[in-house]
Amino acid sequence: MTATLALESGQTFTGELLTGGYGPIGGIVFDTTMTGITELITDPVYTGQALVLTNPLIGNCGVSFEDFQSERPQISALIVSEISKTASNFRSDSPFSAVLERHNLPAIAGVDTRSLVRLLRGLGSVRGCIVKPGESPSFGAPPPRYKAERRVCPAVSQRARINVPDTGVCKNLIEALNGLGVTVALYPYGEPGLFEDPADGYLLPDGPPSDYDLSVIRRIIDSRKPVLAVGLGHTLLASANGASLTELVPGHRGSNIPVRDLATGAVSITSQAHSAVVSGAPKEMISHVNVNDGTIEGLIWREDILSVQFRPDEAVLNAFIRKLR
Fold first, then answer.
1. How confident is the model at residue 146 (pLDDT cuts 50, 70, 90)?
2. Above 90 in pLDDT, residue 236?
3. Could you tell me which of 56, 162, 117 has the C-alpha nearest to residue 253?
4. What total number of domains does the chain contain?
C-alpha cells in the first residue's frame, strides 16, 4: 500500500507501507549501524521512536531470536530504503518482515532515506506520521515510557550483586555482567526494593529519554556504594549532580563511534544512541572523550562512581567490578 511519511516540519516522503498501520509514530531518528539490526529494533533505548536505517538493504540476514535485547521490538516504526524478502544466514530463525508482521510494527520501505537523513542531520529528531496519500497528518502524543518489571538475572558463580532502576537496560549488558560474576536485580524506577534489597552497588542503565525523579539518583549516590552509569544513566547522574546538558544535532547514533580513554590513550569503537551530552564538567573528572567532536563521553564523579555515555566495553565493566569488591 502506498503511504506518505509526513514530518512535523512540513516535508513528506512517499513509500510503501509493508506492515502495521497508519498514524503518528513519535520522534524520528536515524542510526548508521550496518549490522545487528535485530538488536537495534528490540533495544529499549529506542522505545517510542521511529528509526531510519541508513544501510540501503535491511533484513537479508533474517532474524535470530537469540539477539533480541528485550521481549519485543521497542521502536514505534521502521523507515528503510528496502527490506529483503529473503533471509540467508545460518542463524536466521525468521524472515525480518515476518517479525515486523507478528508485532504489527509500522514499517515503510521505498523511502529516499538519503534525503531523509540529510534533513534529520539539520533538524535533529522531528515528530512524524504515516498517512494515506492525500490525508492530513496528526502527530499525536509523545512516545510512551519504557515499561520495566521486577526480575533477577543471576550469575552462575556470584561474586557481587547490583540493583538497577530499569530505565531500559538491554540484554547484552546483563549477560556481560552475569559472565563476570555479577547478579543483576532489576526494579521499576524508584521502587522501594531498589534500596531495601541487599546490593553491593548500582547500575544506572541506558534507555529512552524521559522525565525521571532525580531524587532516586541522589539516594543511590548517598548510599556510598559503587555506581556505574551508562547512556541515559550517565546524563541522569550528571543532572542529579547539577551538571548541564547540551542537545546535539543530530546526536550520536551508531556502532562505530570512536572514544578515547584519557588515562591510557586507547581508542575504542563504541555503540551509542543519544542526543544529550554532558557539558562543562571539570577537566579532572573527564575520563573519556569523543574522538570525532571532542564531547565528553565518560566521567569519574567519585572514586567509586563511574559514568560513560557509550555502551561499556570490558575495560569499563572490569573497573566497576573492582570497585564492587
1. confident
2. yes
3. 117
4. 2
CATH classification at residue 31 = 3.50.30.20
What pLDDT is stored for residue 261 in this prediction?
96
Distance separating alpha carbons of residues 150 and 166, to the nearest angstrom: 9
Q: Check whether residue 110 and residue 179 sit in a common domain.
A: no
Average pLDDT score over residue span 161-166: 97
Could you tell me which residues come within 8 angstroms of residue 294 by beta carbon, excluding any fewer than 6 positions away? Answer: none
Close Cβ partners of 264 (under 8 Å, ≥ 6 residues apart): none
Q: Is the peptide bond before 250 cis (omega within 30 degrees of 0)?
A: yes
Residue 143 is predicted with a pLDDT of 64
Examine the domain organization and report whether 292 and 182 are in the same domain: yes
| Angle ∠(269,114,130) on CA atoms, nearest 5 | 110
φ/ψ of 320, rounded to 5, equals: -65, -45
- The C-alpha angle with vertex 91 and arms to 66 and 146, in degrees rounded to 5, equals 30
Residue 244 and residue 195 share a domain: yes
- Using CA atoms, how far residue 4 sits from 141, 200, 224, in Å, is 19, 51, 53
In a domain, 233, yes or no: yes
Confidence of residue 238 (pLDDT cuts 50, 70, 90): very high
SS3 content of the chain, % helix, strand, coil (to 5): 25, 35, 40
Whether the pLDDT of residue 67 is over 80: the answer is: yes
- Per the prediction, the chain carries an average pLDDT of 93
What's the domain range around 48? 2-131
- Domain of residue 212, CATH code: 3.40.50.880
